[in-house]
Design a protein that fits this description.
two-stranded antiparallel sheet, about 200 residues, mainly alpha, 2 strands, globular, 8 helices
């Protein structure tokens, strides 16, 4: 295969058969130029775990923005961060691998972009001394806002779906207090959640 090309999975191959829950067996056919901008090509076949319909658009938007240049910087893309919260970061990286043939380790991903993603979630307090955590309301606004930002039209049928997603993140990070759904999560802990809460192991 030419040096300036990377493997690209066939969009006709059901990715449910290509990917296991945690150890995808990537099967590829065809190529895409390595310097290609990877124009929109979202294939629902690469969403191999159940996801809320509102999440599907976020996953697709994320996958359509991944290139060879930013594959290790997924958490600088708003829709990728939002998609990770509703689909799981390991599942999302697996879907990206299925879709593009670009298969990073989660631990190789750069930290969550503080200025361009985290700060807009929490507001101006992000730049105060010590910063500030993401609250439940911050997350709800971020999730709905991320859907609007990509001009998608499918929203959660109930805010309880989004609150449940947040509760899961809060629980993993250990900031539940008396109620996980109302907990707040600091930047470093949310960043840890993106990198370590689930796993994806590319095929060597």
């Amino acid at each position: 295969m030419p040096a300036n090309q990377v493997q690209f999975p066939s969009l006709t191959s059901p990715c449910s058969s290509l990917l296991g829950p945690l150890l995808p067996q990537l099967v590829t056919s065809g190529t895409v130029p390595k310097n290609s901008s990877l124009v929109p090509r979202f294939s629902p076949q690469c969403i191999f775990q159940n996801a809320d319909p509102s999440c599907t658009s976020l996953i697709g938007s994320c996958m359509d923005q991944i290139t060879t240049a930013n594959i290790n910087n997924s958490w600088s893309i708003r829709s990728c961060v939002a998609a990770a919260t509703c689909y799981g970061s390991g599942n999302l990286i697996g879907a990206i691998c299925c879709q593009t043939g670009l298969c990073p380790h989660l631990t190789d991903e750069s930290s969550l972009d503080y200025v361009n993603v985290y700060a807009p979630i929490v507001g101006s307090c992000a730049f105060a001394s010590g910063g500030c955590p993401i609250t439940q309301q911050n997350y709800i606004d971020f999730y709905y806002g991320s859907i609007s930002a990509i001009n998608a039209t499918i929203f959660p049928v109930s805010s309880s779906i989004v609150i449940a997603l947040w509760s899961s993140i809060v629980s993993w990070t250990g900031f539940c207090g008396s109620d996980c759904s109302t907990g707040s999560v600091p930047y470093l802990n949310f960043n840890d959640w993106l990198h370590f809460s689930s796993s994806f192991t590319p095929v060597p």
